[in-house]
Amino acid sequence: MGAVAGLIIGLILRVLNNKSSRQLTRAKKEFLNVLRQRIPSAKMFIVGGTNAHPVIWTTTASDVERDQLRKDESLRDRFRALLAQAEYAAGDIPLVQFVYESQETVDREFEGSWNHRKYVWLRERF
Questions:
Q1: What are phi and psi of 50, to 5 degrees?
Q2: Which of 21, 65, 72, 95 is 20 to 30 A from 12, alpha carbon to alpha carbon?
Q3: pTM assigned to the model
Q4: Would strands 97-102 and 43-47 be described as parallel, antiparallel, or unpaired?
């Protein structure tokens, strides 16, 4: 019983402190600078990260820009290194997922809806 109570208290404190969210925000800011050196108009948003492993969405204007970023494996490594520097839980870093998508594709295939695009991506995973 004591171990369960300790676990519950630990989970509550983690949610209240929201430490992982702050760590993600810190790493995101640095990583966006790295991205924009390659694609100045690139944007990012993060889905999850507080109670679920985060999915890092990197968005570009065109398919060509998106494909350029997708091919660059060093970007994932760089973001993971930034997470480690921000003291994100080391065991969770490999579980961070990356999605690269363009506004061009979202307009063409999802009628401009990023929410629909995210839904389809999630549905394809499970």
A1: -95, -55
A2: 95
A3: 0.77
A4: unpaired
* Chain centroid offset of residue 56 CA: 2
The token pair at 64 is 């060509």
d(CA 52, CA 10): 16
Is residue 98 helix, strand or coil?
strand
DSSP secondary structure letter of residue 52 = S
3-class state of residue 102 by DSSP: strand
- Measured between alpha carbons, how far is 109 from 104 in angstroms, rounded to an integer? 9
* Separation of alpha carbons 28 and 5, rounded Å: 34
Domains and CATH numbers, the chain: 18-125 (3.30.300)
